[in-house]
Amino acid sequence: MIVFEDVTKIYDPDVVGLLDFTCHIGKGEFVFLVGPSGSGKSTLIKLVLKELMPEKGRILVAGRNLGTLRGNKVPLLRRNIGCVFQDFKLLPNKTIFDNVAYALEVVGEPRRSIRRKVPEILSLVGLADKTNSYPHEISGGEQQRVSVARAFVNHPPLLLADEPTGNIDPETAVGIMQLLVRINRTGTTVVVATHDRDMVNRMRRRVLQLEAGRLVRDEHRGSYDQVTDSEEEEA
Amino acid sequence: MRLGFFLSEALGSMRRNWVMAMAAVITVLISTAILGAVLVTRDNLNQGATSLKNRVMIEVFIKDTASPDAVQALERKIQGLPAVKSYKYISKEEALRRFRLRFGDKIVENLPINPLPASYEIQVKDADKVDAVAAQFFNDPTVDNDPGTHNGVKYAAETVRKMLGTINLIEKGMWVTTLIFAAAAVLLISTTVRLSIFARRREVEIMRLVGATNWFIRWPFVLEGFLTGLIGAVLAAVFVYFGNLGIHNWIQSSQINFLDIKLFPMFWQGGAWPLGLLPTLAILGAFLGAAGSLVALRRYLKT
What we know:
Structural class of chain B: alpha+beta
Strand content of chain B: 5-15%
Strand order of the largest sheet of chain B: 2-3-1-4
Largest sheet of chain A: 6 strands, mixed
Number of strands of chain A: 10
Radius of gyration of chain A: 18 Å
Number of helices of chain A: 8
Number of strands of chain B: 4
CATH superfamily of the largest domain in chain A: P-loop containing nucleotide triphosphate hydrolases
CATH class of the largest domain in chain A: Alpha Beta
Oligomer: heterodimer
CATH topology of the largest domain in chain A: Rossmann fold
């Protein structure tokens, strides 16, 4: 689903985003990106969305080479990628319903099917009773669920989440993560960048650890921190 | 294109940001109203200038002793001049009738003979040619010139020249004024639109992340600009029209009613500039609004 080959991204005055980064994320996987702030997690997500272009290397998303993807095809790429952000990125002047519907309007979905699909996905994320509220009227956890609903309403093959639980209390965060797992079960590849140690440790999924733009660990069924052999024996 | 969706997006956004929308409408209103006022003023000055030019007339007086043949020859000569627009023969009787109209019967009754000469009144096509045409009659034997002068040909030489210069200057000045105000209108409107889009740049960013194409994002903004421009300009047209009407009525009912103020029509006037006030300003305003949105969006829609 996602292939990075020797990708390097340098921000303007010599700030490293990613350095010779190579990885392969298969279809249907659930992957955690971990690492301290500034280690390149967000850079990676922005590169997949073609919000940024790398200085070096090749990126393939769903078989498409982003380096040769024309600018006017970028919206088409993004329609196949659901996005969830730490700050939710909901349209403040639209109701919950219209926020989710916007992702469908964009792809030219007929009105009738919008009216069917939006309530469906909103009840899936447990917000059936908030359809006419505005983002500022609901809690952070609820806003994040709206944002997950918007990301998934198109049933994209890939879903990216950048610190989805960063602004949410731990209990609500579990709910969000469960939603992402359910989405993953439908066959959608899910990539989650996170700081949330407990969450990663509990889930035991593939972990990619970044440090200063480099991939330092790629572990299946991994935990947040590198576990040494001795520690594992103790456990 | 999903016009319904885009239109409801545009209207919804105008309703939500109504303060900004109103500011934009007022900006368009003021700038197009000034433009409209300039337009009306220019039109009036042009008309004034044209009517003044048309009043430039050459009077050629005929000697009482001239034979009918000579008078006919003079008429043929006038006919033959390409710069002449029209001419009219004023007989001695006609001249006397006019004199009587102007000065009353009493003076005329005391006259033993009719002292007034017959004449031709000549209108020229172009006021600039008046000198050249007049000069044709300075040495004509049929014309009532006193020896050594050409007082048989009467026209306001100096006055005409000064007047023409002034009119030309005013016309040029009005064009420059029009252009300056049009440029000011463009700048004001695009600044206002840019401000309103700057306030919503986060929305634009989110729309792009969700996979909206640039045109999908643009259309509501362009429609919004279009509507803003249209509303402002239509209001401006109404203001200018009633301002024009007010001044017209005021002048008509006052001491200076000889000033022939023209009413710039609201919808249609024909001629070289066929559209009336409302369509002219409405098209201009709507176009400026839409173009302003497009330009202002450009920097947020780089892919």
